[in-house]
Amino acid sequence: MRMLIPALIAASLAAFTSCTGGPAPTDPGAAIAASGRPASDKALDAQRRGPEILAFADVRPGWKIGDLMQGAGYFTRLWVSAAGADGRVYAWSPPEFIEAKKALYGDSLDQLVREYPTHVVPLRMAFDDLAFPEPLDMVFQSQNYHDLHMARFPGDQAAKLNAAVFRALKSGGTYIIVDHVAGAGDAAAPDRVHRGDPSLMLREVEAAGFRFVGESDVLRNPDDDHTKHVFDPAIRGRTDQVIYKFRKP
Predict the structure, then answer these.
(1) Tell me: the pLDDT tens digits for 23-69?
(2) Distances from the Cα of 93 to the Cαs of 31, 105, 204, in angstroms?
(3) Is residue 123 within 8 Å of 132, Cβ to Cβ?
(4) CB of 116 closer than 8 Å to CB of 152
(5) Domain count, the chain
(6) Are the C-beta atoms of 94 and 69 separated by less than 8 Å?
(7) Against a cut of 0.85, is the pTM above it?
(8) In 3D, which of 58, 38, 123 has the Cα closest to residue 89?
(9) CATH number at residue 221
(10) Range of the domain at 150
(11) Half-sphere exposure of 58 toward its Cβ, with a 13 Å CA cutoff?
């Protein structure tokens, strides 16, 4: 049975702490309240459920985190706050992503480095060259997994990315994916409505060697019409989204 967030957090927290002997997880409230977060990010907290996703991620001080295709950096800033003075966030935007999203985000990597020169490391290598300079505790991506299945990318793009993430993580490290929900088996949804089939994501990530350990339902919306484009004004900002957590054995 798939565990939802309350039971998952309690169980994973106890197990992870006993195994690592490491620091306690960062208080999500403290990370949300951190100075330096722009007002535009704070305005998105309720919509993007930053506090709840921070709690679900269970980030510890000092963690090294990979933030894939980070967009404008909403979650990047939260990871910086949660990982603390000894942590580091590797924000990765491949050229393929930067060119496709420039109108939305500009070059947000430059902006994030200006804000956090000692805590954000920008990575710009292509999909096939993705590698990190040190082992990671967590890799995160939000609202981009479906893009890996767009027609302009090779058919094995998702498999290659998942394999790169698996290599990058420490044993016991976590991989968290947030994405817009499409109808089951709707192979055209990534190009047509910018959504993905969660069951396909689950199969692909597990095929890379990960174990599914739980999900959060804080972004689920049963009233969302999965055939609508995510930028449709009728649903934008309120799409049905899954949040899956995987662990590297």
Answers:
(1) 898 898 989 998 888 999 999 999 999 999 999 999 999 999 999 99
(2) 24, 11, 21
(3) yes
(4) no
(5) 1
(6) yes
(7) yes
(8) 123
(9) 3.40.50.150
(10) 5-247
(11) 29
